[in-house]
Structure formats: C-alpha cells, structure tokens
Design a protein that fits this description.
The chain is mostly beta strands. The chain contains one helix and eleven strands; from the N terminus they run E-E-E-E-E-E-E-E-E-H-E-E. Strand 5 and strand 6 form a beta hairpin.
C-alpha cells in the first residue's frame, strides 16, 4: 500500500491544523492506520493509531487531548486534527499502516508514507 500525506505547514502556537493521508494500491480496510513524527535531531516517535474499523484509537501522552485521529474507510483516508499546537510539536509527520496495531507501539511498521512538515512558531 502507498501512503501520501498532505496538510501541515506553518502554524502559530495555540493554533490548529489538519493532516490527511490517502492510501492507494490496496484497500486500507483491515489495516490499522496511524501517525508518527520526527523532530530534528530526535528519533521518530509514535503519535496516534486508529483501529481498522475506527472503533478505537490510542495516543501518545504528549498529544492526548489535543490531537484527534479519524479514518474514512470508504475513501481510504486517515486524518489527524491537531489543536492547541506547541512549538515542540514541530516535526515531520509520517502516516503509517500495519495489520497489527501493536506494531505502532514498537515502531515495527509495514507501510510508511512520505512525511509532511509541521512547524509551530512561538
């Protein structure tokens, strides 16, 4: 499956933005979808994951209560609504897909998308 992320850009602290990721090549049904991010000089880290049917989701503590992940299986899309942004949210954000949601917690992902930059100015 190929994943293409869009959205992000430059946002002021306290502001909001939304990322979207489109899956192609095969249906995303049956795959957990999620997001990771990598800040300059840091390791790639888990952000959020949503189950294949959208029934549940899980977030990193650093974004819980501020970010919301969603998916539209009919359109093979996953989104990440990012509110109350902080300068420390500045990173390249990557969407990801994997049959096992637990792989999101161990960084063992089958499918990675090309990242999209989010920069939060203070």
């Amino acid at each position: 499956v190929q994943l293409q992320a869009s959205g992000g850009g430059l946002v002021q602290a306290g502001g909001s933005t939304r990322l979207s990721c489109a899956a192609s090549g095969r249906t995303s049904v049956g795959l957990a979808l999620g997001w990771f991010r990598q800040a300059p000089g840091k390791e790639r880290e888990f952000v959020a994951v949503i189950s294949w049917n959208g029934g549940w989701s899980y977030y990193a503590d650093t974004v819980k209560g501020r970010f919301t992940i969603s998916r539209e299986n009919a359109a093979d899309l996953v989104g990440l609504q990012m509110n109350s942004l902080k300068p420390e949210d500045t990173a390249v954000y990557y969407c990801a897909a994997d049959p096992n949601y637990t792989d999101f917690l161990t960084n063992m992902i089958d499918y990675w998308g090309v990242g999209t930059q989010v920069t939060v100015s203070s």
